[in-house]
User: Fold this.
Amino acid sequence: MRTRRFLITLSMVLSLAVFAGAGRALAQDSGAGDAASLKEIQREMRQMRAERKTDRALIQHLESQVNELETHNAKTQPTADQLRNTDQKLQATTLELQQTTAQVKTLQAKVNAPIPPADFSEAFNRYVGSHSFTITGAAAGQFVYDQQSSSIDGLHHASQNTFMFDWEPMILYRPTDWILFQGVFSAGFGSSGTGTDLSTADFQIFLNKYMTLVAGLYDQPFGDWYEAQSPMWVNRFITAPLPFGVEAVVPGGEIGLQLRGGMQWGKLGQDFDYTVWGGNGPTFSEPVMGAAVGGPSSVASSQTNGKSIGARLRVYPLPIEAEMGRLELGASTYNGKWMNGNWFNSWGVDFNYFKDSFQARGEWLEAYRQMPSGMGTDHRQGWYLQFGYFLNQVNAPMVPTEVNDFIHRLEPLVRYSGVNQRGVASDDIAGATGTGFGGTQVGLVPDFGITGSPALYAPHSREVALGLDYWIAPSIVWQNEFDIELPHAGGLFVSSTGVETPVGSVPNDRAFLSQFTIGF
Amino acid sequence: MRKIFFAIVLMVVTVGSLGGIVWADEPISPAEHRKLFREGAELWPIYCNQCHNARPGSEKAPYEWDQIMMHMRTLGNLPPEDAQAILEYLKAGR
Assistant:
């Protein structure tokens, strides 16, 4: 500002100097007109003084305005700074808003997108909690028609023409990823009314990848049938094969401990598995030859003086990549003292082959039971061979599609089974017309197995079973079975006191069963 | 008989002791998940159908499959890696 004022003043001084110089030049050039010129000069000088005065006033006015502007500018500077800051903040806010908008769009897209199954699974698992129950199992309604052709040597056999119902819920509880509890109740309404049974209840503790400890009441891990085939919706037939029926060769259950596991030894599908176990040991309905095996002994030492031990090894030789199906080969043994120092020894081999729609399975079992002095060894054998073929890939020509759809759900089956034993306890047969030796048996062996065909209690029983299953869903099936009991060699009937009565070949018998089963 | 049995037990304990960690609920990578899914899809129709009809994953909730497959691993003595692959397939196949 001072610089500007100095420049204005300097310009005015220079102007006066110029005018003064000009006056002296005119005087030297013209002497005659000096007076007139002087007056003119004086007039001009007055004029210049007036102008100078006017200019000074103007300058002062301008200086005043400049000062005012400077003052005003000084006052408005903070506001300008404030405005500048506000503008910067606004820009930053705008940027944040743009980023937030982009994030919202991203989140919106995620919300609108379908939830990946894995994420949903984790979320649902978190929702239900880590301590949760699962209920599975099976239920079945049955109809049995069995008109006995005759009795066996005067022993009564009731004919069957009745409806029955079985329900076997299984409860699973998984408190951690290495402990599982499972339990199965069996409840049935059969020929002798309602009966209930605790089929299995055990803890499964996964010690490491290849070793699981099972503790409790469990199906006998002997062969394949008790463990894998006894559930109603799993068994392709309604009844059990003869070696696992009323005159079973090996007890169907045990209470104790198991160690088990499996591993891959070759390519994918080439596996090996093992099971070893010990328990309270076997029991029998009576201490006579031919008596039926019982369930697990509640107090081992009261009758057996010792525990049972068992082992099963299975191998799967076919790799999956060979596309030759799945083959299982197994061997089992189960041994224990059933009374005092008397041993029960058993062994068996089994196989199972499955490829596409075809399945075959079979087992051979043999048992030796030491008897008290004066009685011979109770030697038993049993076997079964079963085939099935699912018609899901069979298309009949020249028939409507609906017919082919019906055919695709059918599975024809055939099974041949038999048991050899020297004798049968008469009380087992007599009791079978009522509640049987162990109360009403349900589940593992349908009621029909207790009160069924006379051949089931024959010393040398043989049975051909024909089946036709109609699969509504993978675990919903309407099963139909026609049993043909074949006459074979006779043997002995043994009373509770050990009196043996020879018996001839059993008569022919036929039975029809139908069952609707749901596995859930 | 006893000698044979105890020899089997000794073999089992030896083999079992080779096992590593228990099947754990640990998160797996997407690549590992895809690998297990493919393997499970291959094993599911064969391992399950060996004893019973293979049931689709849609029948049960994922937490139920966790429990059922633990039981099946025990009952079928399934190799742990195969059981986990089938489990992943059943849960993801929903």
